[in-house]
Amino acid sequence: MDNFFADFKDNIDDLSFLSQKIFDYFENIDDDKEEEVCDKLIYYIKRKNIKEDQNKYSSFLHFLAFASLVRPYIKNINQKVIKIINILIEHFELASSFIPKVIFDIFIKNHYIILHLLQRDIIPIDCLKRELNRKERFIHLWFFLPEMMYFPELLSNKDFAQKCTNWDKCCKDIKKSRDNIINVNDLALVMIQNDDIEQFIQFASQTNLDINTQIENIFNLGMMCDFSLDLFQNLSLIECSMLFGSLQIFKYLLLNYASISDSSLKYAIIGGNYEIIHLLENHHYIFNKECIEISIIFHQQELYEYLVQMKINKNQHSISRHNLVQIAISNFNFRCLQKLLNEFQSGFLDDYQKHEMMEFINPSSMPIFIEYLLKKSYIDLKTRTTVLFYY
C-alpha cells in the first residue's frame, strides 16, 4: 500500500466514522439525551482532527450538506443539522476556516441551512443575491422572498407579479411554511408521515379517497432543491408511505391493492424500513440496479450491502465498480467508499482512464479525493490549473 493511498484511506476511515455518528444523532429519538449526544459529537469531531486539515474539514461539511437532505422522514432533521452547524461555529472555527463564498456553495443545497447562516452572519446577504440572480427556477427565489427586501430589483421576475399581489401576506405565509419540511396542507400526507392508521382509514372513508391518488408536492420549498426537485413530486400514497417508513399505512394500502411500479421501489430504499422492503420482496418485487444506486445516494449503507449481497447470491454481476465508486464520491458517502476501498485497495481506480478523472473536477468535488488524485498524478498536468481554480 503506497503512502498516498494510506493517507487517503485514513481520512476516509475517519470521515466514515463521523458520518455514522451524525446519522446516529439524526435518528436519536430520545430528547432527554440530546445534549449528551451533542457532547459526544464534539468529542468525536475533535478526536478526528478535522479542524487541522482543511480538505478533510471541507469534505466533512460537504457530507453534512448531503446528509441534511437524505433523511426526509425525520421531522426535525433541519433543527438537528443546524445544531451541528452551531457546534462547528462555536467549537471548530467554521467562520474563520473558510471564506463565506465557500461555506455558501457547500450548503446551498439546503435552503434552511443557508437561512440560518445568514441569520448568524456567517455568510453575507450578497452571496444570496448572486445565487438568486443566476437561478432560473422560481422555486429557489420563492423560499427567500422575505430576504429579497434587501434587493427589490429581483422582484421584477414576472412570476412574483402573478403569485405575490400582497407582499406582507406572502412573506408571512413563507415564514410560517418554513417551520415544516412537508406540505402540511395535505391532510393525507400528514397522516402518512405520522403513520396514523386510524385517522387515515377514517379520512379515506369520509372523503372516498382514491387509493392511487398522487400528491403533487411532498415537501416545502426549502427541501425542493436541485437534488430532489423531481424525485419528490407526484408521489402516490403508497410511495409516500414507503418514503416515510410508515409501516401500518403501507400495509393498509398494499392490502387494498394500491398500484406499485418498479420505479416506486426506490422510495422504500430512501425510507429505509426493512419490514416494508421485506413485504415488497414477499410480493415478488425485485430491487434493481437503480435501487442500489439510490441506497448510495441516500446513504442507506446497510441496505446497500444487503442489495449487493442479494445480487451476488443470485449470480447477478452487472454492478459496475466504476459506477459505484463514482456515485459514492459524488454523494460524499464515506461509509460506502470505505467499504469499496477495503475491497479493492489502491486499485479502486483501475477501471478509469485518465481523461475520465476529469469527471470528478468541479466546485462540489470531494476535496480529499482531489488531493489524492493530484498526489498520484492521476490528473494530467495540463489540467491542474483547472483543479487549482477550485482548490
TrEMBL record:
Residues 259-323 form the DUF3447 domain. This is DUF3447 domain-containing protein. It holds the Pfam family DUF3447. InterPro entries: Ankyrin_rpt-contain_sf, DUF3447.
